[in-house]
Amino acid sequence: MNSICFFCSYFNESAIPYYIKFYLENLTPYFDEIIFITNEKQLDIESNNFLVEKNIKLNYVVNEGWDFGMWYKAFKLYDIKDYERIGLVNDSCILFRKPDEFFDWLDKVDYDYCGMVDSNAVSYHLQSFFLIINKKSVPDVFDYFMQQGIVKDVKDVIRIYEIGLSKYLLQKGYKLGACYSISDYFGEYSPTYFLSDKLIAKGLPLIKKKIISCSYRKDELFTLARMNFNIQPNNHIEIIKKYNNDNSIINFEKVKSDFKIEMSLYDKISYNLKRNLIRLLRPFYKITLPKRIVNKGFYLIDLLLSKMTDILFYIKIFRKIPFNKISGSEPEFKTEHIYPINYNPVDKKLFEHSKKYSTISDEIFVLKNASVTNSGIVTNGFKMFIPALPHPIFRISFGFRYILKQKIFYSSRRLDDKKKYVLIFDLWSKNNYYHWVIDSLSRLYNIKKKMTDFIVLLPEKSPGFINETLALFDIKNIEYIGEKEFIKVPDLYIQNYTAGSGRQNPLAVNRVREFVLNRVNTGIGKKFIYVSRANQKTRRVNNENEIIAIVKEYGFEIVFFENINFEDQVSLMRNVKCLITSHGANLTNILFMPKGAKVFELIRADKPNFCYWSLASSIGINYYYQLCSICNKDHLIVDTKQFIDNINSLLKG
C-alpha cells in the first residue's frame, strides 16, 4: 500500500524535542513516506541527522492556518491522489507507546476517513490530532482543502476543518469511525481531557501535550476546574503506567525536559482552590425540589434585585450605560394589518396585539468597553444595556444574579481594540429560526447599509441555518462567544430592532425577502405542501395521520423542513401556492412564497400567537387559520370537519 504521513509541528528551538522524535520514530513502520512539516528555523546537526537516519523528509513552511494550514500547503506540494493512505498528524499529543493496536485495527476496518478519537461536540467529527484518509475519500478531501484554503482564526479552523470536514464527508456518504470511539459521550467537555483516564484504559497510546506540560490558558483552567480535572502531570503518568508496561512507554523524565513548565505555584494553588470550591458547591445543585418551586423562587429573587436596581437608577446611584447613536434614514412609522381571509369577528381580541402598532426607527447604538455573553446580553459592570434585549421584561431574569454568575463562574476574553464588532443576535434568535430570520437578518441588512469592515458576534455552536444565511449576506468575519465565557468588546455596535417583540416591520422583512430571493433564484416544482412537525418535540398535530390522509386527497405533498438546508427551503418555497402547517418556526418560510400565495395555520385556541398572520400581511400572503384544542401541553387536536371546510375555502378563494 502506497502511504504517506504529514506530521506537523511548531517549536522555536533548533533541536527537535525528544517526544517528537519518539513519535516520528514509531510512525515510520506504518508509512512509506513521512514528511516532517515545521515552521522556518535552523535545525541543529543532531536533528538533521535523526531525520536522515529515519528517512524522514523535512519541509519548512510559514506558520499560518494552524495544522490544517500546514497540511493545506503540503497537499499543494505533493500529489496526494497518488496515495492509498494518508496520515495527518500533529504534535498536540504525546505518543507514549507504539501505535500498533491502532494500525492493526485500521487494517481490519473499511472506514474511508478515520482517526484515534471522535467527538460529538457541535456535531459528530473526528479529532484532528491523528487522522487517516483512505484511498476512496482522498479526492474529495483534497477538493475540500483546496476550496477552504488557509483559515487563520483558530475557532474557524475548528468549525471549517475539524468539524466541517467530517460533516462534509458524511454528507458525501463516506464511512467515518475512530479506534477509541467515545461516540456515546455527548457532554460539553473535551473528551481528550474529561475522558483522558477512560481513553488510556481503552488503549489510546496518546495523551494531550498540555496535560504533561501544564501549559494551559486561563480560560482553559476554568473549564478544567469545572470538570474536576487533576492538573498534576504525575497523576496522569501513573495512570499510563498502570495500563502499560513500563519498559514499552516513553521516558517521561525526558519528556518533561522538553517543556518549560509555565504554570506557577500561585496558579496551581489558585486552580485547586477553585476546583475544590466547585466540587463542594456541586451537590447543592443536585438537591431536588419541584421545578416549579425552584423557578418561582429564582424569579422572586431576580424580581427583587431588579426592583432594587431600578431604585438605584432612579436615585442616580447607578447610571445607565453611556452610548452614542448612529441614526439611519428610516424613522418609525405606523402599520396596520388586514384580518385573515377566513376571519371570524368572534376572534377579534386575539388579533388586537398585532393589528396596529408603530415600528422602531433605524439606529445603531455604539458602546465602549461593553461585555457580551453567549446569550447576547450586553453589560458594563453590573449594569445591563436594555435596548439589546428582545423585550424589557428580560432585565429581570438576566439581571444582577445572572451578571454575578458570569463574573464568578465564566471566563472572560478581551477582543481586538482596533476592530469593530457588531451584535445582531439575542437570547431568542441564537437558537430560533423565526427570530433569526425576521429580527436578526433585518438588523444585519440595516447595518450593512451603514457600515463596512466589521466582525459579527455569534454564539458558539450556532444552528446551521445561521451560518447558511450569513453566507448569503457575504459575512465571513465572525467572532464566536463560548458557552462558558463572556467577551469584552472595546467598540461594540448594536443595530436596533426594526419592530417590537413578536411584531414585524413590513419594509424590513420585504427587504430581507427580496435580498434572499435574488441570491437563491432557482425554484423547485412543488405547488401545494403540508409541512409536518412530526419530528419536533413541540406543537405536533396529535391526529396528524388523519390530517395527512385528508391533504393528500387534495393533492398536497408532505414536507419535513428539518431535512432540507436553508437554500433548498427557499428554492422550494418560491413556487409554493398553498402551504398548510401547524404553528412553529417552519412558518417563517412563508417569507419566500410568491405574493398572493396562501398559507393555512393550525394554531392553539387557548393562547394563540398570531405573529405569522402579521408576517403574511406584511408580505402580501393570504392568511387562513384554524383554532385547535390541545393535549400534552402544546400538541394540537385538529377538528377534521372544520379542517376540510377550511381547505375547501382555501382552494376556492
Task: Map the helices and strands.
Layout: E1 3-9, H1 18-27, E2 33-39, H2 45-53, E3 56-61, H3 66-77, E4 85-90, E5 93-95, H4 100-108, E6 113-115, E7 118-119, E8 125-126, E9 130-134, H5 138-148, H6 154-171, E10 176-178, H7 191-194, H8 196-202, E11 206-208, H9 209-213, H10 218-226, H11 233-243, H12 252-258, H13 265-285, H14 291-314, E12 324-327, E13 334-336, H15 348-355, E14 356-358, E15 363-373, E16 378-380, E17 383-384, H16 394-397, H17 400-409, E18 411-414, E19 421-423, H18 433-450, E20 455-459, H19 464-472, E21 478-481, E22 485-495, H20 506-519, E23 528-531, H21 544-553, E24 557-559, H22 566-573, E25 578-582, E26 598-604, H23 611-619, E27 622-631, E28 635-637, H24 640-652
Parallel strand pairs: 1-2, 1-4, 2-3, 6-10, 18-22, 19-20, 19-22, 20-21, 23-24, 23-25, 25-26, 26-27
Antiparallel strand pairs: 4-9, 5-11, 6-9, 7-8, 12-15, 13-14, 15-16, 15-22, 16-17, 27-28
Can you tag this structure with a few keywords?
653 residues, alpha/beta, nine-stranded mixed β-sheet, 24 helices, globular
**Assigned CATH architecture of the largest domain:** Alpha-Beta Complex
Structural class: alpha/beta
Number of strands: 28
CATH topology of the largest domain: Spore Coat Polysaccharide Biosynthesis Protein SpsA, Chain A
CATH superfamily of the largest domain: Spore Coat Polysaccharide Biosynthesis Protein SpsA, Chain A
Number of helices: 24
What is the count of structural domains? 3
Biggest sheet features: 9 strands, mixed
Shape: globular
Beta-strand residue percentage: 15-25%
